Structures are given as C-alpha cells and as structure tokens.
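User: Can you predict the 3D structure for this chain?
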Amino acid sequence: MKKNKIMSKEQRIKISKTRIRKKLGQGKNNPNWKGGVMYDKKRKLIYSPNHPNPDFLHKYCYEYKLIMEKYLGRKLKKGEIIHHKNGDVTDNKIKNLQVMTQSEHIKLHQKQGDMKQIFKSKFDFSYNDEQEYKKEYGKLYYQKNKEKLKKYRQNYYKKLK
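Assistant: Here is the predicted structure, written as structure tokens:
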C-alpha cells in the first residue's frame, strides 16, 4: 500500500476489518467461535466448509442432511430431499427421516392435506429471512429483486386462498 494515497472512509474500514480478521483467524481459530452451530428458524445448521452442496452461506449444512448422508454412506443426489415423517423438523433421528424426490414430497403432502403450510413457509419472508437473504445474495441483488419477490409472494398467497 502506498503511504501518501488518499483513501475513502469505506476503504479504511474494509482494510482494518481485514487486518483484524487475519489477526484473530477464521472459523475455529477465532476467539468468538461457538462450535459451528447455527439455527435457521427451527432447523439446526452445522459448519461444513468442505461439503460439496452447502445449504446456507456456502459453509453450513442442515443437520438432518448430514445425518442421512452418513447413514446412506454417500452424498445426496441432485433432486433428492429429506422428509421428516412426523412433521417435526427438530426431530433428526434416522427413523424419522426419509429420502425422496421433490415431486414425491409434494404428492405426499397433497395426500396429507398440508400443502398450504409448505407453501406458506417457503414464500413467507419475515424480517430475519430478508436479512439472511441480503447477507447471502448481497444488498444490491436484493434491492433489484425486492419488487419481484414481493409480487411472487402475493401471487402464492392468492393461489393458497
């Protein structure tokens, strides 16, 4: 870095944050490390930076996904999802988990009559969801697509009524 270069406040902040991060370390080396566990609503996320298909922030996977992959002895194929048989997403016991395709999953819930609940949870953004979306995809992308997302949610609510 050149000594006499004039920098904006944002540049100085960015550089200082980078220096602090390098000193403290990332992941397990950081003193603020809490064991690599986060929660997305009720679902438990585990820190898995080397997983080929992470679910959240490019480093975290849902616990039930990791449990099923360990049980199967392989990674989930594209299009496979995990269904909780008793409907409790916090119950990640292997006897409660079932691998199926998205279409099989929808058919199962149509038979049970709880499709409204699935669509509502998928398209109902709370304040926290919007904050996570902004973090993952960036504020600019969120701002550009904010109206699209709003219309998308409104259309689904109309279909559900």
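Helices lie at 9-24, 63-72, 102-112, 115-123, 127-137, 139-160. Residues 114-161 form one domain.
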